[in-house]
Amino acid sequence: MSALADSLRDKLRGRRARTGVVGLGYVGLPLAVELAKAGFQTTGIDLDERKVQSINDGRSYIPDVPTADVQKLRAAGSLDATTDFSIVTSLDTINICVPTPLRKTKDPDMSYIVSAVEAVAKYLHPGMLIVLESTTYPGTTEEVVQPLLEQTGFKAGQDFFLAFSPERVDPGNPTFQTHNVPKVVGGLTPVCLDLAAELYGTAIKTIVRVSSTRVAEMVKLLENTFRAVNIGLVNELALMCDRMHIDVWEVVDAAKTKPFGFMAFYPGPGLGGHCIPIDPFYLSWKAKQTGFDPRFIELAGHINAGMPHYVVDKVSEALNTRRKAINGSSILIAGVAYKRDIDDMRESPALDVLSLLHARGAKVAYADPYVPELHGREWAGKYDLKAVDLTRGSISEYDCIVIITDHKAFDYDALVAEADLIVDTRNAIKKPHPNVFKLGAPRAEGEGHKIAIA
Length: 454
Ligand code: SAJ
Prior knowledge:
The chain is α/β, with parallel strands linked by helices. Helices cover 37% and strands 13% of the residues. The strands form 3 sheets. The chain has an 8-stranded mixed β-sheet, with helices on both faces. The longest helix has 32 residues, at 213-244. The protein is elongated, with a radius of gyration of 25 Å. Residues 167-170, 223-224, 227, 231, 265-266, 268, 271-273, 275-276, 338-339 line the site of ligand SAJ.
C-alpha cells in the first residue's frame, strides 16, 4: 500500500480517523451513529439545519435510532453535526448518503449526488476515503463521482480513495439494522476496496467484497428490481385470477408452502416507497444507454403503475351492485402510507387512488392513524385533507370503504359489521363476505351478491 493508504489504514485500525457522513436521513444517521459507536469521532453533514440542531441537542428524529444513543454519543463527544462542508478539511473518510429520486420523465435525478460531491471536493485532501452509498445506476461512481473529485487535481486511487457500498436500511425492521446487515463494498482499486472494507468492518459484522464499484452498484439494483418485478408478476396474476374467479391470496399462501425455490409476494394497490418504484428505473435508464431494451423492468413498472386504476374499477364494480356511480358517492380510503404500520407516504398508491376517485366526482376522505393530514400538493385534488377516525358509527356514512394500507390499528370487524361496501386491496379481511370486493378474488355468495336490476 502507498504511504497515504498505510496511514489511513492505521488511523482506521486505531480509531483515530475522523469520519464524516453526508446526508443524515434514514440511512445516514444510523450509519453515523454506528461509526461513532465503533469509536470514531464522527461528524454528520446535512443542509437541513433542523436535523443538525436535533443531533447537536442529543435528539434523534429517525425511529430506528434511539435518542438515548445520540445523547450518549454527544456526551462522549464522539458525534456532532454541521451544515458547513468546510469540516471536510479535518475529516479522513466521507460516506455520502443522499437521495436519488426520479424526475417526472422517469430519468435519474443525480442532482443530490452531484451537489454533495462538489461540496466535498472543495475540501478534498490527500489520503481521504470517499464512499458513495446512494442507490444509483452502475457506472455512477466512476463516471460522475470520480471526475468531479479529480477536478481538484487529485487522482482517485492514488491521492484519495473511492468506493461504492449500497445502503440496505429497512426502516422499522426489528431484526436487521445497520450493524448486522451484510455490507457489500466495491472499490475503484483493490486498495480503495481494502480501505472501505476496513472502515465498515469496524462497525458492521459482515463485509461482502466485490470486484468493482459497478458490481456493487448493480447488486443493489438487482435486489430491488427483483422485488419490483415479482410484485408486478403477482399483480398480473391477481388480474388473471379476478377474471378466472380464483382467489389469488389463497394461491400465494398455498404456493409458499413450497420449502424451496419460491418466495411469496402479494398483490396490492400499486408500488409505494422511495426504493422499489424508483430503483429499477435507474437500471433501465442505464441499460437503454447501451441500446438494451429492459423489457422485464418496463413491463413490471407498467403493471404496477396500472394497479391504482384497477382498484378504482373495482370500486366502480362494487358501487354498481348498489346502482351507484363513483360520481357523487362518498368514499373513504383506509390507509394512505405506502405500507402497513408506517407513516411514510412517498409514492404511495393511495395518492393515485384518491386522485382518480376525486377526478371521477367522488367525495373522498381518508383514515390513517400514522398520517394526520394530507397536503393539497401531495395529490391531484390539490386541497388539504385531515385524517378522519374510523370509529363505529362513522363507518356507515360512506358508500364505500377502500382498504389501501392494512394498518394493524384498523378495526376490521367493525368495518365488516358497518360498511355497506368494502374494496379490500390487501386481503385484510380474511373471511369472505358479500359486501367485500377483494382485489384478485371472486366475491362471496350472499345477499349483497345480487346485482340490483332495474
Ligand atoms: N409490496 C407489494 N407486494 C409485496 C411487497 C411489497 O405490493 O409483496 C408493495 C408495498 O406495499 C409497498 C412497495 O411494494 O408499497 C414497497 O414495499 P417493500 O416491502 O419493498 O418496502 P420498501 O419500499 O420499504 O423496501 C425496502 C427495501 N430496502 C432497501 O432498499 C434497503 C427493500 O430492499 C426491502 O426488501 C424492503 O424494504 C423490505 O423487505 O421490507
